[in-house]
C-alpha cells in the first residue's frame, strides 16, 4: 500500500506540473501554484507517512511474534511440569532393591525442572506485559491515527489549491483577452481570494501534520527500541537463571555418579556366606572354620556409605551416613560392630574407615 500511495502521489505531482507548464505556455501566467516551501513540506510529510506506516507494521509483527511465542511457551511449560511430576513421583516411590542413586537423581531432576518451568512462565509473563501490550497499545492508539488524518486532510487541501491555482490562471488569461470586462475581473478577484485562503489554510494544516507525524515517528522509534531491549534483557535473565539451575543439577548428578563409581562392588546374597553366630565367634564350639574366618583387629570407626537391611537376628541394619564402631572383620566379607546401641554383622563393603568423625555423630553410636 505504501508503494501504491507513493506512486499515486508522484503521478499527481507530474500531472500538476504538466498542467502548469501547459497553462504557462498558452496563457503566459506566472501565478500558478508553485510554492517551493509547500513542495518541500509535502515531500517531508510523504516521507513521514511512509516511515510511520512501516514502523507500525514492524510493531505489529513483533506483537504477533511474541504472542505466538507465548502460546508455544505455555505448552512447553505444561509438558515440562508433567515431566517434573513424573520424575519426582519415581524418586519418591522408588522400589529398586540395589540402591537409591537413580531415585535421588530423579528427585533432583524433578525439582530442577519445576524451577526451570517457573522461570519460563515468568519470562512469558514479562514478554506479554513489557513487550506485547505496550506495542499493541501504540499500534491501536489515537496519536498515530490522528496524525495520519491530518496528513490526509492536508493532501486533499493541496489538491484543491492546485485546482484553484489553475482556475486563477484561466481567469487571468480571459481578463487579458477581454480588457475592461468588469464581471470577469470580479470573478478573477474572487478566485484569487479563494486561492490565497486555501494557501494560508494549507500552510497551517501542513505544519500541524508534519509536527504530529514527526512526534509519532519519534515515539515509535523510541518505544519500539525500548521494548526490543526489554525483550532481550528478559530472555537473557531467563537463560542465565536456567543455566544456574542446570549447573547445580549437573554437579549433583556427576558427584553422585563419581561416588558410586568409586565405591567397591557391593556383595550379593548369592555370593556371600552368612555371618557367623556370636557363639561361634566367642569360641563356644571351637570350630576350626570360625578361626579361619575371623581376624583380630583394633577397634576403629567407619561410616556407612550404603544402607544395609538386616536379614537375620545376628545382622546389623545400617543407614547411609551412620557411624559404626567396627570390632571384628571376617575373611568372607563380613564385619561386626556397634551402631546406635545395637551390635551385629554387616558386609564390610558397605562401610569406609574414618580417621576423624564429628563429635555430634559419635554421640549417636552408643
From TrEMBL:
Family matches, as SMART domains: SH3 (SM00326)
Coiled coil location: 144-208
InterPro entries, A to Z: AH/BAR_dom_sf, Endophilin_SH3RF, SH3-like_dom_sf, SH3_domain
Record keywords, A-Z: Coiled coil, Membrane, SH3 domain
Membrane topology: Peripheral membrane protein
Subcellular location(s) per record: Membrane
Domain SH3: start-end pairs: 297-356
Annotated protein name in UniProt: SH3 domain-containing protein
Organism: Rhynchospora pubera
Amino acid at each position: 500500500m505504501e508503494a501504491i500511495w507513493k506512486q499515486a502521489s508522484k503521478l499527481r505531482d507530474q500531472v500538476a506540473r504538466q498542467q502548469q507548464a501547459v497553462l504557462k505556455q498558452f496563457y503566459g501566467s506566472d501565478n500558478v501554484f508553485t510554492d517551493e516551501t509547500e513542495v518541500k513540506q509535502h515531500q517531508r510529510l510523504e516521507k513521514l507517512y511512509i516511515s510511520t506506516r512501516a514502523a507500525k507494521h514492524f510493531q505489529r509483527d513483533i506483537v504477533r511474534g511474541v504472542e505466538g511465542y507465548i502460546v508455544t511457551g505455555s505448552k512447553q511449560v505444561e509438558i515440562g511440569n508433567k515431566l517434573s511430576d513424573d520424575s519426582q513421583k519415581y524418586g519418591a516411590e522408588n522400589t529398586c532393591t540395589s540402591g537409591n542413586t537413580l531415585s535421588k537423581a530423579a528427585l533432583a531432576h524433578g525439582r530442577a525442572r519445576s524451577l526451570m518451568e517457573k522461570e519460563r512462565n515468568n519470562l512469558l509473563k514479562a514478554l506479554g506485559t513489557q513487550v506485547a501490550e505496550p506495542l499493541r497499545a501504540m499500534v491501536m492508539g489515537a496519536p498515530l491515527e490522528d496524525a495520519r488524518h491530518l496528513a490526509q486532510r492536508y493532501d486533499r487541501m493541496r489538491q484543491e489549491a492546485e485546482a484553484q491555482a489553475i482556475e486563477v490562471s484561466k481567469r487571468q488569461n480571459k481578463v487579458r483577452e477581454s480588457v475592461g470586462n468588469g464581471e470577469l475581473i470580479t470573478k478573477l478577484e474572487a478566485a484569487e481570494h479563494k486561492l490565497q485562503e486555501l494557501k494560508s489554510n494549507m500552510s497551517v494544516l501542513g505544519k500541524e501534520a508534519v509536527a504530529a507525524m514527526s512526534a509519532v515517528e519519534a515515539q515509535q522509534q523510541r518505544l519500539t527500541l525500548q521494548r526490543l531491549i526489554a525483550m532481550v534483557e528478559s530472555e537473557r535473565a531467563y537463560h542465565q537463571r536456567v543455566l544456574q539451575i542446570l549447573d547445580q543439577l549437573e554437579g549433583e548428578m556427576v558427584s553422585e555418579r563419581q561416588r558410586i563409581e568409586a565405591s567397591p562392588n557391593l556383595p550379593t546374597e548369592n555370593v556371600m556366606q552368612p555371618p557367623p553366630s556370636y557363639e561361634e565367634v566367642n569360641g563356644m564350639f571351637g570350630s576350626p572354620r570360625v578361626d579361619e574366618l575371623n581376624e583380630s583387629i583394633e577397634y576403629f570407626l567407619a561410616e556407612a556409605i550404603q544402607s544395609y537391611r538386616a536379614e537375620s537376628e545376628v545382622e546389623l541394619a545400617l543407614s547411609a551416613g551412620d557411624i559404626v564402631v567396627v570390632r571384628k572383620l571376617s575373611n568372607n566379607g563380613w564385619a561386626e560392630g556397634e551402631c546406635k546401641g545395637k551390635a551385629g554383622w554387616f558386609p564390610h563393603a558397605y562401610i569406609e574407615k574414618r580417621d576423624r568423625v564429628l563429635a555430634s555423630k559419635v554421640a549417636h553410636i552408643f
